[in-house]
Amino acid sequence: MTVRYTLLARALAGIALAALPGVAPLHAAPARSFEAPPPAVAPSRSLLLQGGQNFRDLGGYKTLDGRTVRWRTLFRSGAMNHLTAADFDYLAKLNLQTVVDLRSTEERAAAPVPWPEKAAPQILVRDYGQGAMGLENVDLAKLTGEGARARMAAIYPGILDNFNDQYRSLFDRLLAADAPLAFNCSAGKDRTGVAAALILTALNVPRETIIEDYLLSNQRFRPDLTTAAADPAMAIWRQVPPEVAKAFMGVDRSYIEGVFRVIDSHPGGAEGYLRDRLGLDHADLLALRKRYTTA
């Protein structure tokens, strides 16, 4: 049962794909106030969304210097095409200003998000096609759970390079205070998971906390809310061992640790990586921490 990449990618719905240049804003949002009074009680990490896909708040995490990531300011998510009218109203009340959509051109066309015109945030996208990320001609019948996890772990370091420009754009928006801001891919676990790891690293959140946030996708990702759920390609998962499907559809500590090995091996470690690859100098990091964390 050899499955070519185009078929497998549709079924996975969240695997990162090769990026091409060209960021384009789809909607221009009116200027909105960034500052909001802190809540009296810490909010839930999960938002009250009827059609949310792995949509959650990055707020509340403690940093290494004793600060706390602001609530209701930074959100990570899967595709938002199942959001309801009530969900859009809820996000408008949260003052959502920017969405950085990391999905491919094909993914966005297959699952467009019907943002209400009056409450549409600024949406940033990059047009790119579905290219191979090491999953070409995967023979699922010959994979074990361990082999599938190893294949996914091998893919992850490439996400850093393939989406470097989009991650730069994401940080540009954060530095410009275009927040509250959400960033997403299809499943909200791979491309989005790496983006969240980079943001939390920049905000000085401990590594173990970042990994715990990454692993939450195993609880929050709902394959039934992907466009692939109605795709005949999904039938392939009924023909493979459950541990193989779990490796591709879920997340594993080894996946994100591969990303951190790349970051840590860069000259200057994490700060050197953020500077050289994402254009964030020390002053930028201080500005991000001041804006998105609180004492």
UniProtKB/TrEMBL annotation:
**Protein's name according to its UniProt entry:** Tyrosine-protein phosphatase
Please name the Pfam families in this protein's record.
Y_phosphatase3
Q: Which InterPro entries match?
A: Prot-tyrosine_phosphatase-like (IPR029021), TAT_signal (IPR006311), Tyr/Ser_Pase_IphP-type (IPR026893)
Signal peptide (residue range): 1-28
Gene3D superfamilies noted in UniProt: Protein tyrosine phosphatase superfamily
Is tRNA processing given among the entry's keywords? Answer: no
One function term, GO molecular function aspect = protein tyrosine phosphatase activity
Q: Which PANTHER family match?
A: TYROSINE SPECIFIC PROTEIN PHOSPHATASES DOMAIN-CONTAINING PROTEIN (PTHR31126:SF1), TYROSINE-PROTEIN PHOSPHATASE (PTHR31126)
Please report which protein family the annotation says this sequence is part of. Belongs to the protein-tyrosine phosphatase family.
Q: Does the keyword Hydrolase apply?
A: yes
Which UniProt keywords are given for this protein, alphabetically ordered? Hydrolase, Signal
State the EC number(s). Answer: 3.1.3.48
